[in-house]
Amino acid sequence: MSKKPALGRGLGALLQNSDTDITSKSRLESDGNQQIVGSVSTILIKNIEANPFQPRTQFEKEALLELSESIKEHGIIQPVTVRKLGYDKFQLISGERRFRASQIAGLTEIPAFIRIANDQEMLEMALVENIQRQDLDAIEVAFSYQKLIEECNLTQEQLSEKVSKKRSTVANYLRLLKLPVEIQLAIRTKELSMGHARALINISDEKLQVKIAKRIIAEGLSVRQVEELVKDKKEAIQKEKGVKIPKNLSFSDLKIQEDLSTFLKSEVTIEKNNRGKGKLVIAFKDEAELDRITELLGF
User: Which of 92, 130, 174, 188 fits a 20 to 30 Å CA distance from 142?
Assistant: First the structure.
């Protein structure tokens, strides 16, 4: 039985033939120009192929045309980053807007920072660099995080280190992918903000999520208004089920309580009085679970 590739079937699309990957530090071209890996070189646009793992899937036509006109007048200020494949072939890692705008502007060559990378490094560079440098919408960021976790076999903690984000931030983005498609589309079109989405995540009923999302768009509700609305809805549902409703907790308190429960993989309860004083209770079932929780907390 053959061994399954560690990074999944999708990475086969990255190389036409992995055996042609060039690993030498430089190569003398037939016209005498030298392309040095690790430096900026001018390469033909026709020799660059698109990045199959580009997280951005939507490019505004008007913005591309404006960038194209700027490139015609001033040239490309920041080189794109490419991966060196076999011989004259390259693959785009980051800078797809500049690459597309250059094509529109009619350029035949473009300055590029040339790198050599194995399959995992290529995927990580493509996703991490685009996440950090591009103005991606929240859903595109979430998909990029998910791709890194799946294809590179990373934990959320490892991913947070690679993208220089808090683990809770990474977790919040990933939770967006659990929302109904209608809400994800509204986030992409900026009808709903990340704050709105985080509030909606706290409702488990998808139909109710969509109903509230439509109300947010129709009435222009603020994030604070949505948080209060969600809190009221949850309390009403809990009351119907006979569940004890925590007193004196704001939406933010409930969110912290839920985030801590998710992070620690154990039930966390916040108790507060009218003056804001209270306690944090973390449940555990045995000594082993207590050790696991204390290790997560850094003790």
Answer: 92
